Amino acid sequence: YETSPIKDEL
Amino acid sequence: MNIFRFAGDMTHLASVLVLLLKIHTIKSCAGISLKTQELYALVFATRYLDLFTDYISLYNTLMKLIFLGSSFSIVWYIRYHKIVRRSYDKDQDTFRHYFLVLPCLLLALLINEKFTFREVMWTFSLYLEAVAILPQLVLLQRTRNIDNLTGQYVFLLGAYRALYILNWIYRYFTEPHYVHWITWISGLVQTLLYADFFYYYFQSWKNNVKLELPA
After folding, report:
1. Rounded to the nearest 10 degrees, how much is the dihedral formed by the CA atoms of A2, B11, B129, B145?
2. Neighbours of B109 (CB within 10 A)
3. Residue B54: closest CA among chain A residues belongs to which residue?
């Protein structure tokens, strides 16, 4: 993952 | 995006709308903690530092802008609007910001996934969001008269957190390598803080009586 998948959350 | 995550976001959005409705239409912020609102503004300001650097989706960007804009405008209304600010329970809303902000900052500096400015700020925002509701819960307990909109506002916020937990459980089983202790534990703590409120909220709903928290 480039950005951590959790970062797609709000 | 799964259904729990989307429902969580929509519940979060609804909570903000309920609060804005109360403030904008009824011109009252009675029972609303300015401290909690200021903490949320700080939470969003430190979490969404990636707004202009990392594009995730239009949905993501729009929601971030909505949460940032609404949290700062709510703070502005309670502090400066000449009618709204009169209804603010200043003497009851005495929780100290730094009791929450400083420990969260310290914890974020110690426990994070990567020691960079953005990552520490992001972690700080998670820790702070977990406890930001506390001044509001204390104020609810002190306020003998909790009006419907205030009760619904807190209920929707709690529901949003509960849905996020379901979202993480779903993601854990459907996405590979999905382990995020910091987010999960702070999210769990945050949701548990609502347990007491939920209990009395459902009691009042079941018995059809006005919501009141025991002192």
Report:
1. 180
2. 12
3. A3
From residue B188, how far is each of A3, B5, B148, B202 by CA, in Å? 23, 15, 26, 20
Q: Which of B2, B11, B60, B112 to mutate to test the interface with A (most CBs of A within 10 A)?
A: B60
What are the DSSP calls for B74-93, one per residue? Answer: HHHHHHH-TTGGGG--TTT-
Burial of B208 (0-12, 13-18, 19+ CB in 10 A): exposed
How many angstroms separate the CA atoms of B135 and B119, rounded?
26
| Rounded Cα–Cα distance for residues B181 and B179 (Å) | 6
The letter for the amino acid at B112 is N
pLDDT in tens, B114-125: 999 999 999 999
- Is residue B43 within 8 Å of residue B125, measured between CB atoms? yes
Measured from the Cβ of residue B127, the count of other Cβ atoms closer than 10 Å reads: 25
Select from B65, B180, B185 the residue whose CB has the most chain A CBs within 10 Å, as the one to mutate to test that interface.
B180
**How far is the CA of B14 from the CAs of A1, B154, B155, in angstroms?**
32, 11, 11
Q: Which residue of A has its CA nearest to B114?
A: A4
The domain spans of chain B are 3-204
Digit-coded pLDDT (tens) for B86-118: 999 999 999 999 999 999 999 999 999 999 999
Give the integer Cα–Cα distance in Å for B89 and B60. Answer: 34
